[in-house]
Amino acid sequence: MFVYVTEPLSNNQKSISMKKICYSSIFILAFLMVFSCKKDKNSDPDLLIGKWDLDSIRYVLYENDVLSESETSTDDFLYLEFTAGKKFYVYSSQGIEETADWSRNGNILTLRYAVDDEEDFTIFTLTNMKLILTYEDTWQEWREEITVYLTRQD
């Protein structure tokens, strides 16, 4: 069995030891603050913000999982706008056709038209220039799929 005996530290030695502990603690805290914080992948919805021209909309309707109707349209509206203030606008040649509040959680885009009226779209593609949104709704034996293809305005 070993017994380790030391002499008591002098006040100067205690001061130096406390400074080392203090500096080490500050260094560790600074290191943790800089390197432990990571950004959420989808915390910045700025890529969505802006005006998006309609390329086309594809409507597909299934009855009992059998294709019933399919149509592609290019004239439902002129463009969509997502503002930094979380407002959503649909523009036609007549002006604003629809308004809603928007929010985003990952790739789910929620448009809230009124208190009990909202729709969830899936963001299939979002780049600087392209936005593809999909929407699916079912009721009884019917299933509707809508895909909206958009290009950012210059």
Kindly describe this structure.
The chain is of the alpha+beta class and 154 residues long. It has 2 domains: 7-37; 45-152, Lipocalin, CATH 2.40.128.280. It is built from 1 helix and 9 strands; from the N terminus they run αβββββββββ. It has an 8-stranded antiparallel β-barrel with strand order 1-3-4-5-6-7-8-9. A hairpin with a 2-residue loop joins β1 and β2. The longest helix has 25 residues, at 11-35. It is globular and about 40 Å long.
Which short descriptors sum up this protein?
eight-stranded antiparallel barrel; 2 domains; Lipocalin; globular; alpha+beta; 154 residues
Largest sheet: 8 strands, antiparallel, barrel
Shape: globular
Beta-strand content estimate: over 45%
Order of helices and strands: HEEEEEEEEE
Strand order of the largest sheet: 1-3-4-5-6-7-8-9
Structural class: alpha+beta
Assembly context of the chains: single chain
DSSP helix fraction: 10-25%
Point out poorly predicted stretches.
Answer: 27-43
User: Separation of termini?
Assistant: 80 Å
- CATH fold topology of the largest domain: Lipocalin
Mean pLDDT: 80
Count of discrete structural domains: 2
Helices, strands, pairings?
Layout: H1 11-35, E1 50-63, E2 66-73, E3 79-82, E4 87-92, E5 95-105, E6 108-114, E7 117-126, E8 130-139, E9 142-152
Antiparallel strand pairs: 1-2, 1-3, 1-9, 3-4, 4-5, 5-6, 6-7, 7-8, 8-9
